[in-house]
Structure formats: C-alpha cells, structure tokens
Amino acid sequence: MVAPVRPARLSLALATAGLTLMVAAPLKAEEGDYSFWQTLVNLVSPPKADNKVTAAQRTGNYPLLSNPSGFNDGFQAGRYDAWQTIQLAPSTGAVCGDGSPFKFFVNRVADTRNTIIYMEGGGACWDYASCTGQSGIRGARNPNGIPDDYMSLLNPGASLVSPFVTRVSPFDAVKTQGWNMVYVPYCTGDIYSGDKVAVYNDPSGQNAPLVWHHNGARNVRAVVSWLKDNLPRPTQMLSTGCSAGGAGSLTSYHPLRRDLAPTRSFLIDDSGPIFPTLKNGSPVDYPSQPLMALIRSAWGLDQPNGPLPYLASGLPQFDLNELGSLYPALSSKYANDRLGHTHFWKDLNYSSYSYERFYPDIANAPDQATKEARIHARWNTDTARLRDRLNTLNNFGGYFPQYRALNESHCTTIVDFKNADVQAQNLELKHFIDSVLDGQGKVIDASEQDDKADKAKPFNPLYWLIDQLLG
Amino acid sequence: MGRRQAAAHAILGYRMKHPLALALILIATVAGLAAWWSSRATDTGAPLTPAEATPSSSPALSTLQATPQAQAHRERERFEADARDFFARASSLRPVERSERADALSRQIDRYEGDGGLSAGEAVLLRTALVKATVDDPAQQAEEVAAIAERYRTHADQRMAAFAAQQRSDPRFQTYKAREVQVVAEVMAMTSFPAGLTRDQYLRQRLQEERERAYAP
Predict the structure, then answer these.
(1) DSSP class of residue B47?
(2) Which of A385, A467, B163, B183 has the fewest CB atoms within 10 Å, i.e. is most exposed?
C-alpha cells in the first residue's frame, strides 16, 4: 500500500521535475518517447494538446469541427492504459450510417507522444440489400451504430484484433504496442471515404426506403479534429487498418497526415487496395472498374467539392480518371514518409466484394471452385498491376504473400504477423512491417509466386477458432 | 507558453516562498545533469531503465514515484512484462511454475479487462494463448478455447441486443429518425436548393441540423 502524497509535496515534486527534465530531456528510448522523469510527471499532470485546430482549419471544405463547448466527450486526460470512448457531437459532422452518433476509442499512454491510428475493417455497402445487412449478401459492419462499450465486446472486428493495437500480444512484438492507440470503428460502409446521404429503395417494395449516411470522410475529419484538440502532436504516427480500414487509411492519409503533422509518418494499408483502374476502362482490362464506377456515385465521391476533388486539390499527381494514382501521388507528396501496402494473392474476401455482384459469370458459376477461380483470375490481374506500380515507388512498398488459412486469406496483419511469408525470398511479414516502420532506403517489395508452401502448412487451431468466431 | 517555460515559471514563483524548495531544485538539477551525462556516455540505443535514467535518491523522484498513478503504471508495466516473458518461455517452464504463472496472468487479465485496460479482442487472444501454453492435450485445448469463444460471443450478443433496445428507446434518436423521414421526403421533392448547394449537399446539411436539434442538451 502506498502512502498518500500530500498535494503541496506533489506540487513541489512537479516543479522540481519540470526543471530537471529540461536538462534530462535527451533520456529517451525512441524518437517521441518521453524521458522517465517526464513520464512520471505526465502520470499526474497529463500533457496537453500542442497542435490545436486553427481558425483556418475550421473553415472550407471538410473543416475540422470540434465538439461544442460544454459537450461531455467522455475523455479523461489522466486515464492511461485503458480504452476510453470518445463521443462526437452532431455538430462535428460525424454520424454513423443509421444516423446514430459516431464515436471512437482512445487508449492513452504516459511515456510517448507516438500514436497509431487504426481503422477498423468490415466490408462495404452500396444498395438496400448490402446496407441493411441482408442475408447472403456481403455488407458492412455495424449497421446499427456503435455501442459505448464496443471495445469490450467480442464482435467480429474485435476478434480480428491486430498486433498493431494489442498492448500485450502473445504472438508478435511491434513498436506501436507501446504507443497511444486510436481505434476508429466502422459504421458507414464506405471505406471511410464517402460523403453522401443515400436513399436506397427496397427492391421488393415491401419496406420503407433506407436512409444511409455514407459519411466516412467527415467522420475521419472529426476524429482528426478531436485528436488535435486533445492530445499532443505525434512525433511518430502510423495510420493503418485492414480491409475497409486499410483502404480508409490509404484514402484519408493525406489530410490526416497533413493536419496531425507528425515528425515521422507511416502508412500500412493491409488488404484495402485501390487498384489502378481507368475510370472508363474496360472491365476486361480493369476488373475493378464496375465496382469503382458504382461507389463513386453511391458514396458521392465525385460531387462538387466532394471527397475526390478535395483529395486532388492537395495531391497534384492524383488523377481522378485513375484512382490508383493515389499511390504515386502520396509517395511524391510525402517523399520522406514510409508507406506500405500488403495483401494476399488468394484473398477471397475483398475480391468477392470487388467482383461477385458485378460479373454474371461469377454470380452464376456452376460450383464454388469455378466461382473462386473466376474471382481469383480478376484479382490476379488487378494485383499484378498494383504490384508493378508499387515496384516503381521508392518509399511505397508492396508485399504480396499468397495464402493463409484464416479469414479467406483476407488481411495479413490480423491476429498475428505469422504465415504471411514469402518463402522464396526468405521474408516474413514482420520484415516488411519493420522495413516500413524502421527501415532505411527503399521500402521492401516482395511478391510470392505460388501457394504450395503455404497450403502445405499444418492445421492452426487458433486460426480455426477465429474463423469459428467469424462464422 | 510552452510546457518547459511554464514549469520554470512555476518553480520561480514557488522558490520565492519556500527556500527549502531551492535546495531541492538544485539537488534535482544536479542529479538530472548527472543522469544526462550518464546517458550520453552509455547510450547504446536500447531503452533505459528507470535506475539508469534517473537519480534514485532525488526527493522529487520519490514523491512522483509514490503517487497512485505511478504505482498503477508500474503494475501495468509489470503485467505486460510478465505476460511477454511467460509466452516467450512457457514451453521451457516446469509444469507447476507454468500453471501458477498462468493462473496469476489470468487473474490480471480479468482485472484489466474489467476496468477497460484490455479490449475483448486482446483478452481473448491472451486467454487463448494461455490455454495453448498450459494444456497439452489438443482435444482439451480445443474444448477450452471453444468455451472461451462461446462465453465472449454470448456476452457480445447480449450487449448488442441491449444496445439495440437502448437505441429503440432513446427519445433523441427516435426524434431524429422521425424527422429524417420527413426531411428526406421534403428535399427529394425540391427542384432547386439554396446557396448553390446540390441536392445531396443540402440533404446532408439539413439532416445534420436535425441531429443537432435532437441531441441538443
């Protein structure tokens, strides 16, 4: 039992520590970490925001809007090492797909400024069937909003927890496990990119139209605004996520990175590719073209001053006729950042979203094997083009292993970093992650030729368990 | 004013009132300088331990280390270090020690999960790893892991059902949803929109205003 500390004595200790840490500042483990002294001070006097939203940032397209004065966001600045639910008021522009309040989660630490922004995955939707979660159709996560105790529920998102946002992973160590963690839940079905209130009619005519808020772009802006107003500027920052969260980390990277303004910034898009695809290209050559054409309209991406024009206004090389130009555009704009993309060649999840409902030969395939083969063939075409593009970029690596017996080979960084190896090059996924987060020179590029070695691996009971949970 | 400037300002004010504070400041400053020089001489890039990084005899340090916050911080660090060490060395531990340490970790997981220090996903992974580390029989392992999964799934189902019920009975949300239908119908019937907005932009703006009204304190 520790004896209580008298306030006067604590004030003196804080004052003394304040002076001492001025001369002891170089004591740190890594760039962005506080000294031991400062950490002790932070525990009783949490560091305040030092990069607040400016007046200019509160205006224009996609402004950074804060909670109104007096609004209880639920944040306790001195509550460390615990998941806190952050409420966002309607006036921030944030909202879930069903119109309920949007919220996100912060797990703060006292010993570093470094921060990971993790965007949850969870499908996508673009019509009545997919946005209502109709059985048999791949839809989007959390159609009924986000409960306050979301992080304590074993929903599919939580069961796919990544070592990136696990304080104590039994399986892998990565430096973000000691960072401030920001978990952004997914409830808009638009890969964090949309800005449109869609009205989807029930094709059967039996139900009222569904009003759905594809509001991902504004939700991310509200999160950024809150982070700027409440936490210190990150020295190091990783933006990442898997699936829709990976795509969201990619599409939001420019404004998020620009406004949070970390000293060193990293991106890892896990299994959320925006494939190089000509806007009016042939689906034979660009298999993702039908999907992209649909979501550009359904999610309001091309509207005047909408998400895509907004992105393009800050990224000179971003060509709205070819959205895969986002990779070189980010690489060029942030030449000192280290960026990475990864997914499996045998991913059968994101690929199914991409093609299943757009190609009759897939929908009407005579059997599952034929269906999967047709999906894989199109995915291979898209992946090969993305791989070749990333090969040309010095600071944007591409890592493409073949197969893992978990979650339809979807997402390389969930549960653990194992079994996403490229055996022929003697590479593990962790090599790629380390190359992004701690490497020098060109970010690793690697691509596996076939899945024989992967499929020869023994049964993994943990993966089986996770698949059961998802099932 | 920056944090360090503010600290110096606070110290200056305090010094005028308490001569003893000046002595403490000098001691701490000298100790801090010594630690800084020590770190410069021995810096290998590895994380510094508290003993290496700070003067153990500093009164200010003792005071800060005695706070409940510092104690909780140390306990958390110890838990994380214990967990990492256990999972790294479990297979080489003697069965009794392995079992005892697993039990201790399990209690810590209960505690941190209970107060929000671990998400459900983190806790499930840790509990699953504990089973893998302590149960040799594959069939029993699968049984125990399945039981963990079932417990969490049942809890999640119950909580999500409770959340859905809460949404249905939340007058603010219900007020908004009722207005949402009306505003959508109204905007869809319009042919021109104010301030040069498109229909989509105007609809989004109108619905945000409705939410602001419904959720106003």
Answers:
(1) P
(2) A467
Cα–Cα distance, A464 to A461 (Å, whole number) = 5
A44 with B64: Cβ contact below 8 A: yes
How near does any CA of chain B get to the CA of A300, in Å? 8
Q: At what angle do helices A7-23 and B19-42 cross, to 10 degrees?
A: 40
Contacts (Cβ under 8 Å, ≥6 apart) of B66: A2, A3, A5
Question: pTM to 2 decimals?
Answer: 0.89
**Which residues of chain A register pLDDT less than 70?**
1-28, 155-160, 469-471
Tokens representing residue A279 in the block: 């806007």
Task: Identify the pLDDT of residue A16.
Answer: 57
Antiparallel, parallel or unpaired: β A338-342 and A396-400: parallel
Q: 10 Å Cβ neighbour count for A77?
A: 15
CA distance B183 to B180: 5
Cα A182 to Cα A32, A105, A198, A226, A245, distances in angstroms = 17, 6, 28, 11, 13
Pick from A19, A166, A461: which is nearest to B122 by CB?
A166
In A, minimum Cα distance to B129 occurs at A170
Q: CB within 8 A of A34, min separation 6: which ones?
A: A28, A42, A110, A111, A112, A113
ipTM of the complex: 0.91
Q: What is the pLDDT of residues A367-406, one digit of tens each?
A: 999 999 999 999 999 999 999 999 999 999 999 999 999 9
pLDDT less than 70: residues of chain B: 1-57
The single-letter code of the amino acid at A395 is N
Amino acid A243: pLDDT: 96
Supply angle C-alpha A72, A75, A77, rounded to 5: 130
CB-CB neighbors (< 8 A) of A35 in chain B: 53
Task: Read off the DSSP letter of residue A96.
Answer: -
For residue A328, which phi and psi values (nearest 5 degrees)?
-65, -30
With a CB cutoff of 8 Å and minimum separation 6, the contacts of A376 are: A345, A346, A348, A351
| Closest to A45 measured CA to CA, from A1, A10, A9, A83 | A10
Q: What ranges make up the beta strands (E) of chain B?
A: none
Q: B154 in contact with A at a CB cutoff of 8 Å?
A: no
Residue A364: alpha-carbon gap to chain centroid: 33
Q: Is A9 on the interface with B (CB under 8 A)?
A: yes
Q: Which one, of A44, A29, A55, A28, lies nearest residue A77 by Cα? A: A44
Backbone angles phi, psi at A240, to 5 degrees: -155, 175
Sheet with A264-270: strands ordered across: A83-87, A103-107, A180-184, A115-119, A236-242, A264-270, A338-342, A396-400, A446-447
What value, to the nearest 5°, has the Cα angle with vertex A267 and ends A287 and A307?
Answer: 60
